[in-house]
Known about the structure:
6 copies of one chain form a homohexamer.
Chain A: E1 15-19, E2 27-33, E3 36-45, E4 59-66, H1 78-81, H2 86-100, H3 105-108, E5 112-121, H4 126-147, E6 160-168, E7 171-174, H5 178-183, E8 186-193, E9 198-204, H6 212-237
Parallel strand pairs in A: 4-5
Antiparallel strand pairs in A: 1-2, 2-3, 3-5, 6-7, 6-8, 8-9
Amino acid sequence: MERNDGRKVDQLRKINFIKDFTKYAEGSVLIECGNTKVICNATVEEKVPPFKKESGEGWVTAEYSMLPRATATRNSRDINKLKQNQRSVEIQRLIGRALRAAVDFKKLGERTITIDCDVIQADGGTRTASITGGFAALGIACKKLVEAGLVEENPIKTTVSAISVGIVDGVPMLDLCYEEDSRADVDMNVIMTGEGNFVEVQGTGENGTFSMDELTKLIDLAKKGNEELKLKQLEVIG
Amino acid sequence: MERNDGRKVDQLRKINFIKDFTKYAEGSVLIECGNTKVICNATVEEKVPPFKKESGEGWVTAEYSMLPRATATRNSRDINKLKQNQRSVEIQRLIGRALRAAVDFKKLGERTITIDCDVIQADGGTRTASITGGFAALGIACKKLVEAGLVEENPIKTTVSAISVGIVDGVPMLDLCYEEDSRADVDMNVIMTGEGNFVEVQGTGENGTFSMDELTKLIDLAKKGNEELKLKQLEVIG
Amino acid sequence: MERNDGRKVDQLRKINFIKDFTKYAEGSVLIECGNTKVICNATVEEKVPPFKKESGEGWVTAEYSMLPRATATRNSRDINKLKQNQRSVEIQRLIGRALRAAVDFKKLGERTITIDCDVIQADGGTRTASITGGFAALGIACKKLVEAGLVEENPIKTTVSAISVGIVDGVPMLDLCYEEDSRADVDMNVIMTGEGNFVEVQGTGENGTFSMDELTKLIDLAKKGNEELKLKQLEVIG
Amino acid sequence: MERNDGRKVDQLRKINFIKDFTKYAEGSVLIECGNTKVICNATVEEKVPPFKKESGEGWVTAEYSMLPRATATRNSRDINKLKQNQRSVEIQRLIGRALRAAVDFKKLGERTITIDCDVIQADGGTRTASITGGFAALGIACKKLVEAGLVEENPIKTTVSAISVGIVDGVPMLDLCYEEDSRADVDMNVIMTGEGNFVEVQGTGENGTFSMDELTKLIDLAKKGNEELKLKQLEVIG
Amino acid sequence: MERNDGRKVDQLRKINFIKDFTKYAEGSVLIECGNTKVICNATVEEKVPPFKKESGEGWVTAEYSMLPRATATRNSRDINKLKQNQRSVEIQRLIGRALRAAVDFKKLGERTITIDCDVIQADGGTRTASITGGFAALGIACKKLVEAGLVEENPIKTTVSAISVGIVDGVPMLDLCYEEDSRADVDMNVIMTGEGNFVEVQGTGENGTFSMDELTKLIDLAKKGNEELKLKQLEVIG
Amino acid sequence: MERNDGRKVDQLRKINFIKDFTKYAEGSVLIECGNTKVICNATVEEKVPPFKKESGEGWVTAEYSMLPRATATRNSRDINKLKQNQRSVEIQRLIGRALRAAVDFKKLGERTITIDCDVIQADGGTRTASITGGFAALGIACKKLVEAGLVEENPIKTTVSAISVGIVDGVPMLDLCYEEDSRADVDMNVIMTGEGNFVEVQGTGENGTFSMDELTKLIDLAKKGNEELKLKQLEVIG
């Protein structure tokens, strides 16, 4: 069976990283997953949130937003409604949790790394692209901390990547584009470490429900995808 | 092995529903899961959001909030910060998705049912209690719609309940209280239909990561819990 | 003359306090005045607002809110409109002023007691129920401060209770329910100490105006009501 | 006994109205009560709020604000805090209720009169000055409606004025300035019609409580003050 | 050629300053430019914004707002929309920049002067009237600082005034009223020092574009106007 | 005299347009002016704001924002402060006015074109880059309207471009980068049509004031710059 864009069911879209996409951030990549494009910028600041003060430990947090015209129709900016989009809130919490799993806060020391994920073009999978690209930006920033002698050891303890899987027309598939995602009966985002363990698994029966068997099949596809993403991440971080 | 409160690892906390907890809502229950207590009120309104206008279909949505002193220390109200708590945003989106899986929108017709979940006491598992109690309120409201002749057939197509499971001190456990939840290495919320299918699965490695084997064990525990919850729900809806 | 619910014109609705309604607050009661039900939680915090810093004195403040479905039709949450309901603002300022009249701030020391009044069911008189129940929660919290040895003397210097009175169909009445309140020509809230002095008197000619003679009659009724409420309060505080 | 500014206890401050203080409003006065100065502008608009639509009746509402430097120290603007000052909310609700008591909504027809009360200098009694000045602006606007043939009969059914009274150093006094108000044990705002009936009475024991006897004395003082204010109002409206 | 109000093309409207318009501000004037009237209050506070902390230097900032009924139709207050009017934002930034050009921050020392410009009647040219009146209020406040011995030397280093010019019906004109402004093809605000140098020039082709020749003519008119305004300012400051 | 980056005083930075930078917008360019990079997306919508309803005319508006890490240090997002950055407000109003000067609203018909300018990297001149790039996006979108037969004639009536000029170390210069801008005594933004007329001129004496002679020199430099920008714009629009 072939998908609209000619991919096989277990095939990722073309993944591309542009390193140093912007010049000021401590870590910056543009991640392209097919037509989904996200600017991921990592900022290192010598301060921590109140609950980490005097703990000797650092913190990692993430923010997610879409440009108004990242999508087929224009969405008005959050600031014009004075409310952050609820989907964005959910996504940036997920990105933050995922990336914190990759970091040893003791080794990071009392500093905060903020990962800004700004979607400039959205064709499905923006949250998983943000995690995968966000990890690359985080990794680049941590490497610079080591090189600058600001930390003794690299605080990155494992890679973290994410991919979406889903069941479309009854068929389990890897890396759904928007058109597939909108038709999917089951949609799952699987965030994994480089060792193949789960950081987070979120499966939703968008138009129905799913069984343990389907869950297992989807997770197998996701493992394959995350394995490939890990290699790309290591390459861009260097 | 025995837990702090004497429960077995696969034992739910004492579940209690107080039906008609408030008098104006079309469906109202207080759900008590141990020390976690949530008022779940269902409101039926003869209107739908813009994207459902003239579709002949209805909608189900949920809102979640905690009283300032539902917890050991007082949290200031969202309105005083002019921002909805980000955790609440994430939770109410989850509750809404879960309850929509239970409803046939065609049978509901062009009306909206809003499920308000207001936590008056929080001891872990407030999001799953909100889904389980919210379904009961929804079920009561739908039954009244049938009795009032406003809908021809009951729009409820299946029961939906939710329970948390997690790995604490290396041991998979059912229905974590706050103290267990805060020590858990893995935390998972499993939302299921009465038929035992998944509506949503969200597993997070809070202090680490987890394997497929652990995932499977946790889901088995959740199945047992949800089966018991379903029976309680059917009893209260009547 | 008999009222809709069979009460005499100078008769209170059935008053009921459920002590320790929630478990974390330093003082917690559910007050039921007929069908009006308000959760009153007192929180003690070891801090004071800026204008009390280094004064050696404490502070008492109140917040008031209604659950969306406390009333016959659903009201949207303040946070969704990004504005606190103006009626709630007015009421919580009244509750705060009333309860501060009961407290010796020197004896309280530099700590703040916040009284959260959350209406779960509204059938008229929610602001007076909040004051009467709020005082009970405050009294319980202060008693605990004494028992814990945190204050030398109980900072409560008098009881404070409140009741509504009004003129309905030309007849002065005690403790209006919603239906009576909405028909009232004059509506008055009378807040008194246990000694029978006024803390605050607010009388409004909702559908007209009123005379000194009517004012006097209403205040007499309110005295009777507050005297009964005081006894209930003392009982629940213990 | 003489007061700081040489007034007798039952003497109003110098009252002055500047009619047509601004040129665009349908009714505009600057009211000066001693050093308290409030711009009161009445705007007539051919629309009503939703709850009055197709009722054949009009509406009257009020807004109250202070310039940042109306007081001895500067207060930041509400918009910079994104919250309306809670005291302003309480006051503008009071002004609105008071002025509505003066108007026959049927005669007004389906139009809204908004009274903007902007305090440019505050020396106590800004809420009562706003009501007294606001009524004058309202009266001027209603007179113009009659003159323009937009209403058949003048919708004003009675004058409404307001004055503060209080007990300072044990002495009941009329029309407190800021310095007196800040020392007062009891503070009362009395809003009356031209016929001497009460529209609203709000008495507060700021630093203590008060008795029926004190209440009666204060109200007598307020009657005297409001009688004088009524004459001034009639003069300015013409 | 004569204008609607009888003025010549290079003639200012009648300018009037009322000094000490309010009594609490360190500097206060009401500026009247024809029918445009703005209250300008200068507040001196012994604090500086974060970026000036421990610099030994002060700061000057401005806020601009219009009363709801300053104009022919009523505008709702910013706070009711939870957003500052965008035009007001632009104007208050301009006023702030203009007035900062007049002040030696070293001589001012670590204090902030805030200029509040509240338009009570608007007939064109409110931003230039705010700058011209705001400078007068600033000058009065600085003079008081000298007199009180709080600063050694007057921090005012030059006068700053502003006037609008424009091309209406092809004719360059000085000091446009609202009616002229709304018909203008080119509108320019010119802010100058007493020495005749530019502080800021903002020219806009409202209904078209303009040439260097037109720009030069407009600036000549503005010079004449600002020269006259300077004399008025010096007179009111004294 | 040579500048830090080797440019001559009348030399633009390297200008580059990437057409179709995003795929959904009706017009999309990335404009690069040296290290300043702005995504300019034009969205065409078949609706107009209220004041244009049933006028037969269209509207053009602009929004401006910077990514948090477009600059050397991270700025928090507007939505987290619930206030749009005041500088952004000022800039987006300028962009909107500038681009409206280019469009014949009658020819556009009742539709709105929104130009989103999102700065991904800021090195001075972001507002002029946004206007120059925004015009290109607008031009591309209008061309598509013609090609799609939605409008009869191209509503673009002239090109509009903008450039900054300033006096740095006493020397008038074209196209300031951030480092130059922060040292400039005078800073001017000049917006011109393709015919060499002014759309808007904004000159500010950032650290001082300026004379007519300086103004004239700066405008001459700006003319040269805008002439070059016009050619680039025509090339990218095609």
